[in-house]
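Researcher: Please predict.
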Amino acid sequence: QQFSTPADLAALAALLAQPRTDDIVIEPSAGHGMLAVMLPQVAALHLNEIDPRRREKLHLLFPQASITAVDGA
């Protein structure tokens, strides 16, 4: 909840992760979905965001994703 991932770092993270089409990707602190939007097509996408307004946006941006609101603290 401190800051959003800059686009260039999100793209680099996706590139280094080398996700494949049969991978299941979990983003534990999805925010606005910057890391998720940089991914190629994957088998499943699981996003977690505790902020209700951001979670609402994630539902619109990633209708195929499983979206949760688990607070790890």
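Model: The CA atoms of residues 31 and 44 lie 18 Å apart.
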